[in-house]
Amino acid sequence: MLYKKGLNELSALLSEGKISSKEIAESLLNRIHEKDKNINSYITIDENLLLKQAAESDSRRSAGKPLSQFDGIPVAVKDNMNTAGVRTTCASKILENFVPPFNATVYDRMLNAGMLLLGKTNMDEFAMGSSTENSFFGPVKNPYDSERVPGGSSGGSAAAVSAFMAPASLGSDTGGSIRQPAAFCGVTGIKPTYGRVSRYGLVAFASSLDQIGTFGRNVADTASLLQIIAGYDKKDSTSVNREMDIDAGKLDTDVKGLKLGVPAEYFTGIDSEIKSLIENKIKELEKLGAEIVPISLKYTGYAIPVYYLIATAEASSNLARYDGIRYGYRSPDVKDLSSLYTQTRSTGFGKEVKRRIILGTYSLSSGYYDAFYLKALKGRALLIEDFKNAFSSVDAIIAPVTTTTAFKIGEMSNDPLQMYMSDILTISANLAGIPALSVPAGLDSKGLPVGIQVMGSHFQEQKILGIAGALEKICDAVSPED
User: Fold this and answer.
1) What was the pLDDT predicted at 390?
2) Does residue 78 have an active-site annotation?
3) Residue range of the domain that includes 316
4) Could you tell me the CA-to-CA distances from 479 to 61, 130, 184, 185, 281 in Å, in that order?
5) Among 2, 169, 242, 376, which has the minimal tally of Cβ within 10 Å of its Cβ?
């Protein structure tokens, strides 16, 4: 069953000439047709394009000229990354029929490595949400339990990898949108350092927080895809020009001598099973020679208000471009310019997106800017200082990813504050711009996955991926029932 193979397994089989790219594509398409009607992880699949790309890859390999070791492997892409000629909706009615004229840099880098577009994955509308319930195309269901959410906003990307409907996928992480669904769906997911991966062609939610990252069934696959998409891009003004120092083939999984910080604030108010499972894994890391150092990230409690002021303010600015004039949905029920704006935005945006636009516009409005937005920026500086102090004494930080395992669909949808609070353990990494990942730790008593979070200082992806590799060896493998 080719669809069950991961990125590096497929690479080896292709290199040995044992399989073709066409066989991989067809195996995955059959799996999607069989499984996705229950999970809803994809919005758009262009089968003709996929098979055309597969045939081109097979021709390159036959001629002995593959573009990379991963030439011919299909990858799923979150539907907020531009793919020229293929619909990019951001799971919103306002972009339901939008076909971009250019590619996101990450998609170009995939194509340059010979990788194929498997499909565009479902997500919370404009990446605003923690459950992938806020999609115009319907909610995504968790492969472990169809009554539960897969996490958000990259729920489709995580669920597709978890349910063997993609060997790997791209997601975006603004406040935990890769790590939380990775934890809920039992896969590995990494949010790199802000500036490590180009945001060019990523439809913006909150520009100072958004970062594209990767999902895989294991650490090596996640690292391999990250290595392909990372690197400087002159098209992105926030891209950092530095030497590429991510090498998926040389991950150091020896934790002996490493100082690993454990923040007390991340272990309060969390599910007892999650706490116990992660504390046991930390003890096992200590047995392997790591030095466990209790630390304090004392401003963690301020992360939620700081994040939701900054993120909503940036969202209200970024989403002003959807006005019914330039592109996207336009309401037919209009009498004049004013009603064109109001009707298009009222009917084109979903409830959660409208809520965040209103919150952000309010915090930026005259008389409130200093009281809210400016104060939030000062709070962000304190959170950054918190991490800076921590990393002066430890090599990495180990913590839970979520306070609970996957919750039921509809359980929090009428309580936005409770939903926002579910991000408490992930958003600080975005505010500080540091790399962070989730790796599966095992299952709880309900059979639901638990994730362990590893956070590092800026541009320390290689180090935290190595630590994740060590965790992978001591954690129970997880997989949903087929």
Assistant:
1) 98
2) yes
3) 1-482
4) 32, 22, 12, 9, 19
5) 242
Q: Which CATH number covers residue 400? A: 3.90.1300.10
177 counts as catalytic: yes
- Provide the token pair at 99: 């076909």
Phi–psi pair at 275, nearest 5 degrees: -60, -50
Instruction: Round to whole Å and give the CA distance between 114 and 25.
Output: 13
- Residues 6+ positions from 265 with CB-CB distance below 8 Å: 296, 297, 298, 300, 301
Positive or negative, the CA dihedral 397, 173, 132, 106 is negative
Number of domains the chain is built from: 1
Side-chain-facing half-sphere of 235: CA atoms under 13 Å: 13
350-377: pLDDT as tens digits: 999 999 999 999 999 888 888 899 999 9
On the question of pLDDT at 334 being above 90, the answer is no
Cβ of 382: how many Cβ atoms within 10 Å?
13
Catalytic annotation, pick one of 41, 131, 153, 438: 153
For the chain, the farthest-separated pair of C-alpha atoms sits apart, in whole angstroms, at 71
Backbone angles phi, psi at 240, to 5 degrees: -95, 125
| pTM exceeds 0.85 | yes
Q: Which of 162, 177, 224, 428 is catalytic?
A: 177
The per-residue pLDDT for 41 is 98
**How long, in residues, is the chain?**
482
Q: Tens of pLDDT along 278-288? A: 999 999 999 99
Mean pLDDT of 311-322: 95
Rounded Cα distance between 86 and 119, Å, is 9
Percentage of the chain modeled with pLDDT above 70: 100
Query: Which tens digits make up the pLDDT trace of 65-121?
Result: 999 999 999 999 999 999 999 999 999 999 999 999 999 999 999 999 999 999 999
- Measured from the Cβ of residue 456, the count of other Cβ atoms closer than 10 Å reads 25
pLDDT, residue 369, reads: 85
Residue that the structure tokens 């209790």 belong to: 294
- Could you tell me the two tokens for 21? 């790219």
